[in-house]
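[User] I wish I could look at a protein chain and see how it folds. I have put the entry right below:
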Amino acid sequence: MSGIQNYINHVALVLDASSSMSHLSRKVVEVADQQIAYLARRSRELDQETRVTVYVFSDTVRCVIYDKDVLRMPSLKQLYRVGGMTALLAATLKSQRELAQTAQLYGDHSFLTFVLTDGQENASHRGPEAPARDPRELVRSVAELIETQEDNWTLAVLVPDQMGKREATQCGFPKDNIAIWDATSTQGLEEAGQVIQQATEKFMVGRTKGIRGSRAVFSVGAEAVNKTTIEAAGLAPVDPSKYQLIQVARDAAIRDWVVECGHTYRTGGAFYQLSKSEKIQARKRIAVLEKKTDRVYTGPEARALLGLPDVEVRVKPDHNDDFTIFVQSTSVNRKLVANTRLLLML
């Protein structure tokens, strides 16, 4: 007789502790502690076991907490000290290689790592634990590590600017696992914490649907949708007799266009095509259209599929060759954009 499936998450924070982080050091502790408290709460609510690892890096890389039960985590106050340069690549390699030695017996194990830095790599090749002396060799090592990680590994990085994003891309980080944060202010760090929390929520909800890892952990939009994630989310297509797709020929208010096309407008029954980045409220329903077949998927799972938490969040339309996002309209004068489509539930 097989046992109950036990979801076990190994979440790691790899935090920059170089000298340039000194003006944010108190805030780093606060944001990390908030993230751990949030993980503890969601682990209880979703009945998932979560174990936390924390690395800090400057000239060298130190593991200050290893695979500890999230419900027993101390504050990072005594563990986070700044000073030195930025051994970013060494920290990435060391954290992933050491975590890979963690036992994965009896359960569905998944690894999620967030690397946070306010600057560019400048110390890994000089440090005492340097995996390589040539910086280019280090970049290749990180790219190879990411390329060969199993499907239950998610590695994400938060960088301060476009140059950091370019370097992370060269290191093989998937583009939707790279986020830019404002490293100049405590407000910027607060917002980075919210981005990490949103990505963690998407990860943990995805776990309940059988999704083990993500190469689009920061993506909230159509790019998160594909056949695999639809199946994993348990989405079933809506009966084709229950909806109609209407072409929008010109800019028009939603009710006017529905009536003009010979239908009755029912509040909440019409979904507009997401055509620009916008905020979507927690109560709004989402529908996903498969372009090739005009199959429509909706329900709470559609929100989870896109990684939407139960709070208001900004969503990007993201170009996706196979799927389109539709959002429920609860107003009569929502402006429809010409050359999009309208989904009408009958």
